[in-house]
Amino acid sequence: MTAQALQMPPISAMESAYSVDQKEDYRLSCRAFAYDRATRARDIITESFRHAHPNATRRVPRDGICHCGDPIAYGDITLTIDEKGREYHNHQRCNSWACPVCAPKRAYSRANEIEQALIAANERGYKCYFITFTVPHRKAHSSKFVIERLNKAYKRFVDCRAIRDLKRDWGYVGAIKCLDYTMTDNGTHAHLHTIWIFDAPGDAWEDAGKPITAIMKRVWDRQVFNECGEHINQAYGYNFEYMKLGDPASPDASSIAKYAAKSISIYCTDHDTSKNGSISPFDLLSAKATDEDKKRYHDFYKGQKGRRHIFFSHGLKKHLQIQDSDPVSDAPTSAIIANISYEHAYFLKDEHQRQEFEKRARGSVALALDWLDQKTKLQQQDMQRRFPDPRRDRYERFQYPLIRYDDAINELDDPLNEVSAVIRKHRQQQDEWIMTAEQINERRMMEDQERAYSRYSLNRERYRRHVENTLKKNLAKSGANRSRHPLRDYENPPAISGVGAAILAADAAMESARVASYDCPLFYGVDESPAPPNVKDEERPAPRCAAPRPFSREVLWDEDFWF
Q1: 58's torsion region: left (phi>0), alpha (psi -120 to 50) or beta?
Q2: Is the pLDDT of residue 310 over 60?
Q3: Which residues pair with 91 in a beta bridge?
C-alpha cells in the first residue's frame, strides 16, 4: 500500500476510519517514502559539492544531511526492540529542517509546544491572532534572497513605533513565529505564520480586530516597500485571523490542533498539490524529479540553512510555563537484544531492509538476527567486489561481531510470554545494571583521584628533599673550596670605623624604616608580643611585621634559616 493510496483522515475520525493494521501500513509507507526522499536529497547535495570542488579529496561534504542515518563510528551499537516490534539502533541524526526524515520529527515536537502555548493562553483568558506575512518575489530570486528580505522586513515591522504602541495599548504578551515555504511557478514563496497573544479586557476585544489589522497591514506594507521596493499583494501579502479556541474550561481541541498543524504545514503535507499549483520543497524529491526540480531543492537547501524556523518570543515559554519538548525519542521503551557491528548497522540504514528485519523479528528474534548477519556479509562481499580494498582479500570470508542477549531473545521468542511484559522486565534490568555500572565507575573514579593525589604528594615531598640535599651539598662544597688569605684573621675581623661605619648605619636605618612601613607579615618573622590587658583573643590586633633578621655571613651558613 503506497502513501498516495492511503490518505489520512482528520484526527477526530481517524480511530473509527482505519484499523490498527492500516495505520501501521501507513506509518511504514511514510517511513519508506521519507527514506527515499532523504536518499535523493543526499545525492543532490553530494553531486553539487563534487561539481563545485572537483579536486577535493573529501568526496562527501560535511553537511549533516549527507550523514543522516549513518551508524556511529565509535562505541557499542546496541540493537533494541520495543513493545510494537520496532527496531532501534545507535545512529546519527542531522536534525536539519531540509531533511525529509528529521524535519517532520522536529516539527511535530515543536507543534506540541505550540499546542501547550495555545492551551495555556486560552486558560488565562488571553486573545490570540493568527497573522501571515509575505513579501513579493520573482522566479529569478533565490530562496536565500527571499528569506533574508522577509526576515529584515519583519524585524523592521516589529521595531516600528506604531507596532510598539499597539503592543503597549493592547497588552501584548508574546508571539510565536514559524517560517514556511512553498514552491510556486513564481519562485520560492517564503512566508511567516505568526501567533500574536494579547491580554486585553473581553468587552474591548470584540471590536479590536479591525483597528489592529488596519494598523498592522498599513505598517507591513510600508516596511516591505522600504525593504523590497514593492508593495505587498493585497490578497496574499497579509492575512489576519482571530483564533477561536473555545471556552477556557473546555477548549476546542480540534481548533487548537488545526492552528498548530498550520504553523508547520510544510512538514505535514502528504505530497499533495494545492489549488494554485504550489508544492512543498520535499515534493521536489520525488522519483520523477527533473534536473530543474533538483536545482530548486538545492536552492531551497542553501536558503534555509542556519535559519530559525519556529521561534518563541523571549520569555513567552516561561510566562506560559511551557517545557521544552525534545524530538521524538528513538527508543521509548525497548530492550537490548544484541550488540552489532558497524557493518550490521550500515545494512539497517536502508529503511526497506529495516522494515524487513522488523517483520521477521515479530516471528522470531533469533532467526531475524541470523538473517541480518547473513545479509550483512553478502552486502560487504558485494561492496568488496565493486569497490575493492587493496588491504583485503577479494574473496575474504567476512565475520563481524554480533553479541546476542540470549535471555531476552529466548523470552521474546516464547509464545507464552507477553511481549510488553518481557520488554518492561528487561528494560528495568538494563536500567538497574546501568545504575550499578555508574556507581562502580564513580567509585573507581574517586579511587583514581585519591591515588593520583597520593602520587602527587609523594613526588612533591621527594622533590623537596632533593632540593634540600642539593643546596646543602652546594653550600658545603662552597665552604670547603673557598680560598683563604694566610695573613688575614677570619675569626676576628677588624671593626669597621669612620665613613664605612656611617654608611652601614645609614643603610640599616633605611632598611628598618622600609620594613616598618609594610602592612603584611614577612617571612622574617611575626611580632608575637603579648596582647594588651583586658583584651580578648578574638579582639587581638592584627600582627605587625617584625624587624628583619640581619643578613650576614652567619645567616648565609645557618641551616636553620634556610630549612
Answers
A1: beta
A2: yes
A3: 71
